[in-house]
Please model this.
Amino acid sequence: MPKTPPPRAVKTARKTVRTTARQSARRPAPPVDPRRYSRVVVDGVKQAPARAMLRAVGFRDEDFARPQVGIASTWSNLTPCNMHIDELARHAAAGVEAAGAKPVTFGTITVSDGISMGTPGMRYSLVSREVIADSIETVVGAQGFDGVVALGGCDKNMPGCLIALARLDRPAVFVYGGTIRPGAQGRDIVSVFEAIGGYAKGDVSEEQLRYVEKTAIPGPGSCAGMYTANTMASAIEALGMSLPNSSAQDAVSPEKRSDCARAGEAVVRLIERDLRPSRIMTRAAFENAITVAIALGGSTNAVLHLLAIASAANVKLRLDDFVRIGKRVPVLADLRPSGRYSMSELVAIGGIQPLMKTLLDAGLLHGDCLTVTGETLATNLATVAPYPPGQQIVRPLSDPIKKDSHLVVLRGNLAPDGAVAKITGKEGLRFEGVARVFDSEEQALDGILGGAVRAGDVVVIRYEGPKGGPGMREMLSPTGAIMGKGLGQDVALITDGRFSGGSHGFVVGHVAPEAAVGGPIALVRNGDRIAIDARRRAITLQVPDAELRRRRKAWRAPKPYARRGVLAKYAKCVSSATLGAVTDLES
Model:
């Protein structure tokens, strides 16, 4: 064993440490190298081939002496969420150029949940989050960009971009593509899904369904309610990674174009200060993001994605953090899907900044967190005016829609590792019923539309988890059908898959462990009684333990959906939903 040093040696060592600390404090910080990464790629005789390649894409002599900023564009013409992002990327590049750096735009993929929903293609949705993150990290790392502006519109773009920015830890700003304006009579994509249920019930004619289909989506932008896209945009702004009000602007607006140009300018200032995401995406910042997502009545996907972004940022965030924060944060915004108003209507009264100011003044946000403005959150909010008098969209703290979080983490013998429910209070706080079990989303949708699901049922959709799906499909088609058939108050739905931000009703997702790995949800049978209690945060399969043990012995894992390709690779490396369904956990 090592010998204990004599007291004098300890005092000397302490004095040395204090002296060194004082000297370090007086010593000026090393100068920031704004070309820390790009100079490795373009400086010196041996990098002449790299410069030759870059000249062909428009670099001039003076560009090689400037910091390089990658503009990560998720543009695609396959979805309204992203169809305008090429224009926004040009505005961001112009902002970078105006600030004295060299922009280089590159693309990554996007897929549309609204298009693939209810089909086998939806398995690729959550997978795309990982592909986006990997591709942005790959391009920025390979090309030696000194900073990044990432632009995202559809649901998985945003967490995919943030995961990449966290991994890279280079000065960066995220820009949200903006919200779509509501369609005819205030409709949106969820109106179409619910009209299908109404058609199956006989309340909606084929002509009416076609009219809803033709008029619900008027142009560019992400889905109109506080669904996953607007939830994540708001959470990212609260996290400090977007400029103020980037989350609350119409996709087609002068404000959004200005936001992009200012983001380009901002990232150059961040490079000059070497202010990186690791100093912004702290644990306190993630708590701010959770708080704002709750106050807005946001999507359950915020839980999944914030866990994943935190993992990439080496911040320890757990399901229990959502429980702890949710006990003191109320739901204040009356936004769709469970509320009355669209995101565009929130934009018109000032966006989320006045809400954040209210939360800060109430001690519910950490005001000392740094943001991409280079200032703290409190400084950014200091001059924000309150909402206009008489508005009905955001309630005061004294009169909340719900006094605590609608994102309820449940545990019990059906979900030992946790499940996430979206309980606004309008659905009730407790549901007990009889299990109606389906081994896929398609089976469930056929059962709902065909009349197999009745009042008092607990619809169980399993083998749709991260591994089992694979890809953890969203259940907007089944929940939309339930609502459309008028069963929203009479039926609950639980799944090891997840929900679109547009889903509402008594719904529980992210059940873990999932069925594909033998979680208890795999053992449920038709006719079993299930109790869901939001007050006690409990989900209970009312079957004796001895019977569950007997069923477990008889259970066999199903054959995997995919044996090769991206789905098979994803299924092999993806983690539990409880951990954010990430694919890059440390071994």
